[in-house]
Design brief:
7 helices; 0% strand
């Protein structure tokens, strides 16, 4: 193995063992939500917050407290230790490939939410049409 290749491996090991700052943790969580098309409003709803601003503030570099980290871990499958210390990786690792499964399920949930929203809009427009027909307002 060439010497420069070994140096690269050493650099990678150092990056993995060096904890991330609170800002880096927040940016990584925000990037996960962006990549998975999850709005801060959706995050707030899942975590039981009244405002998306709470989520935005948490991801802007504030340290995650134990209770907040637990909420994110339970709601999104994040690694609680990573949220608290910056050590390890964002997603909880497992031998069964849960990381990929969680991401796939999140995508399916998002798709189902969009389908439900579309169907709700269709039902609403049909209800409005029925109402107008009853009033005799349509031609």
């Amino acid at each position: 193995m060439p010497i420069f290749a070994m140096d690269k491996n050493i650099d990678t090991m150092n990056e993995e063992s060096t904890p991330k700052t609170t800002q880096e943790v927040g940016r990584e969580v925000a990037a996960y939500f962006r990549e998975n098309n999850i709005s801060y409003l959706e995050v707030a709803e899942r975590l039981g917050y009244e405002s998306r601003q709470v989520v935005a503030n948490q991801l802007a570099g504030k340290t995650f407290g134990k209770q907040v980290a637990e909420k994110y871990a339970k709601a999104f499958g994040f690694n609680e230790l990573f949220l608290l210390t910056g050590k390890g990786s964002l997603m909880e690792e497992s031998k069964d490939g849960e990381k990929g499964l969680i991401k796939e399920l999140m995508g399916m949930i998002k798709s189902l939410q969009e389908t439900v929203k579309s169907q709700q809009e269709t039902v609403k427009s049909q209800q409005e049409l029925i109402y107008e027909l009853r009033l005799g307002k349509t031609a």
